[in-house]
Amino acid sequence: MANNTLVSEFIILGLSIHPELETLLFIVFLIIYMVALTGNLIIFLLSIIDPGLNTPMYFFLGFLSFLDICCTSATVPKMLTGYVTKSKVISYYGCVAQLFFFTWPMGIELLLLTVMAYDRYIAIGSPLRYVTIMNRKVCIHIAITITIVGSLNSMTHTYCTFRLPYCDDNKINHFFCEIMPLLKLACGDTYINEIVVFTADFILGICCFCLTCISYVFIINTILKIRSAEGKRKAFSTCASHITIVSIYYGAVIFTYIRPRSSLSLEKDKIVSALYAVITPTLNPIIYSLRNKEVKEAFKRTIKRLGKYKDHDNT
User: Fold this and answer.
1) b/e for 94-113, b at 16 or more Cβ within 10 A?
2) For residues 250 and 91, what is the distance between their CA atoms, to the nearest angstrom?
3) The pLDDT of residue 159
């Protein structure tokens, strides 16, 4: 450490080291970000203003959309700015902030997907008691609890990552400040960090995934007991969107974090990180809105109300 100079800024290398691809990447990620931002913002606002979506399912779906907005906004705008300005530099504290505001929604989302699976189990298994069990007060308490847990997780990761010294090499082989690439750059012992990362992601990743699977075991068992084919189809359709998102999200997260350090490949990790950090938040509103009749009807009602307000103002 005596012969090393601590870094005051980092250089984010990005998804590709080939400059000729930057224009294409800028266009692609700009489109993806605008789709993610627009889609999630629409679902978030609909879950608040439309009375027809005043149910626990859409309360959690709105919360999920809010987290997706936070997740993509923590990483993509900085990347797009770098493509425009040709500057890939991020300050030390800017990197700290980016890591915190990326891991914050990620941790909460893992917990939220588990809660949403339990919500579907109650809705299918105990439909008459659903409104009583998952009332508004319970939903708010759940949201606050998982937000606190997710915040503690994010603070722990951020503190443990930046308690390490970073010296000389400041080139992050990623498209944002991620934990694993930063640990590669640290000039201190990262053993404790690896334990913290594995433990936290085992609890939030594997444990939440197992709880989600348990919920779906009970859901499938309940659906099989339904006599009518139409009833089975309707019950399964309420879970199909959630199953799709869970499969993509957990698969990418577990691949990135829950594996031995020796098997790390930062080039592969960049692609997988783009999947759960950018692509999945973009797919969430598409999957939920295209497959969900209630969301589409709520959107039409809102457009009609806005049209009426506009006509009233003109008169």
Assistant:
1) ebbebbbbbbbbbbbbbbbb
2) 31
3) 95
Once rounded to an integer, what is the mean pLDDT over residues 25-31?
Answer: 92
The answer as to whether 228 is a domain residue is: yes
Q: Two tokens at 83? A: 């493509």
User: What's phi and psi for 201, nearest 5 deg?
Assistant: -80, -25
For residues 272-291, give the mean pLDDT.
Answer: 78
Tens-place pLDDT, residues 212-249: 989 989 888 888 888 888 778 877 777 777 787 787 77
Question: 110 vs 10, 47, 58, 158, 250, CA distance in Å?
Answer: 29, 20, 17, 18, 8
| Contacts with 304 (C-beta within 8 Å, 6 or more apart), sequence order | none
Mean pLDDT in residue range 159-174: 90
- CATH code for the domain of 198: 1.20.1070.10
CB 112 within 8 A of CB 57: no
Instruction: Report the number of distinct structural domains present in the chain.
Output: 1
* Distances 241 to 27, 246, 247, 289 between C-alpha atoms, Å: 28, 9, 10, 9
Residue 3 is assigned to a structural domain of this protein: no
Q: Residue 145 domain-assigned?
A: yes
